[in-house]
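User: Sequence in, structure out. Go.
Assistant: Echoing your sequence, followed by the structure tokens.
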Amino acid sequence: MKTLCGLCLLATLALGACSSTQSDWSQANAAHTVAAYEAFLEEHPNTPQAVEARNRIHSLKDEQAWAQAQQVNTVQSYQNYIQDEPSGAHLDEAKDHISSSERSTAWAAASAMDTPEALEGFLQKYPQGPEADQAKVRLARLSGYRVQLATFRSERQAEQTRDRLQGKYGDVLGSVVIVPGATANVHVLRSASMGQGEANNACERLKKDHLTCEVIKDVNS
């Protein structure tokens, strides 16, 4: 009889514990906060619900970190999210935000300079996207002309003159290049491709220094 009573008591205690666990779990679910799930884990660390409680805590903290990153909305805030939540659910979005912000900053700098070199540099790094399309349109407008500088039969003389002009006038001529002339063994010095206005200004500067030059249409445009 005593044994039967003991078994009944154990069953009653077990049912009570189960009921308490389920009740606390329902309350934690209803609150659905980090604090509520942590409180549940303190009371019931080894229950089947404990695993789910830990998963929900991780998910809620991840969402809080992501919301904070979006609220600040800077490259640094998204980098902080990636660092703090290396397995977060929003890693790809964070990386996209960083890439978009860096691209926008680079485009602002390139468009402010508005030179073929700046636009070409931007396109090399960001060949796709709406900014790239704008860069191509601007580049087409700015480029298309060169300053023809001199003609030589001696390749060595052409190279020496190119280096001298590059060193002194590289800021207005860009990269000075040697191209084949219309006849054999003729070497022509020309500036980088640029807009017509830039080419005219560059040639005027050289003429002030008593150098011969001519603005020509770039055959590759």
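User: And one key feature?
Assistant: Residues 1-17 have pLDDT under 50 and may be disordered.
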